[in-house]
Amino acid sequence: MIIFGTKGYIYQLAILTLVCGQCGNPSAHTLRKRVSKFTLFFVPLFPYSTKHYTQCTFCGVEHRVPNEQAEQLLAQSATQAQQGGGQQHGANPFAQGAQGGGQPGGGNPFSQGGQGQQPGQGGNPYQH
């Protein structure tokens, strides 16, 4: 008895900022590659189908992308990553006043310390 079949694999290649064709929002899109492989006794042997897709993170719609365009988008993503993409790597764009900025709690609107509460009087019981 011979057991054969197929198995699909999804690889996320890049995250790009594009204007969605469905909702019209400039949002992050994931560039994904779907590879279908022939299996024999549950061992993947060779790919028989490769397709590229982008998925909008705002509305969730997927668009099929030709292989040539997927390679161009991947190259575009690599050049943006080398140039820094307008931000420093590791920088948090939401951290306002991370050096203190005169605000209690270092400028973090979600911190509970530094608001006039003493330890053990409300606030976060795990914060010392």
What does this 3D model show about the protein?
With 128 residues, this protein is mainly β. The chain has one helix at residues 67-83; strands at residues 4-19, 26-40, 43-56, 62-65. β1 (4-19) and β2 (26-40) form a beta hairpin. Residues 86-117 have low confidence and may be disordered.
Based on CA atoms alone, the radius of gyration comes out at: 23 Å
What is the H/E order?
EEEEH
Which structural class should the secondary elements be placed in? mainly beta
Which oligomeric form is depicted? Answer: single chain
Biggest sheet details: 4 strands, antiparallel
Overall form: elongated
Total number of beta strands: 4
SS strand fraction: 35-45%
Number of helical stretches of at least 4 residues? 1
Low-pLDDT parts are 86-117
Estimate the helix proportion, in percent.
10-25%
Whole-number mean pLDDT: 75
Organism: Streptomyces camponoticapitis
Region (Disordered): 71-128
InterPro entries: Zinc_ribbon_15
Biased composition (Low complexity): 71-82
Task: Give the topology.
Blueprint lengths: L3 E16 L6 E15 L2 E14 L5 E4 L1 H17 L45
Antiparallel strand pairs: 1-2, 2-3, 3-4
Précis, in short:
With 128 residues, this protein is mainly beta. Helices cover 13% and strands 38% of the residues.
Features:
single chain; 128 residues; mainly beta; 4 strands; elongated; Zinc-ribbon 15 domain-containing protein; Zinc_ribbon_15
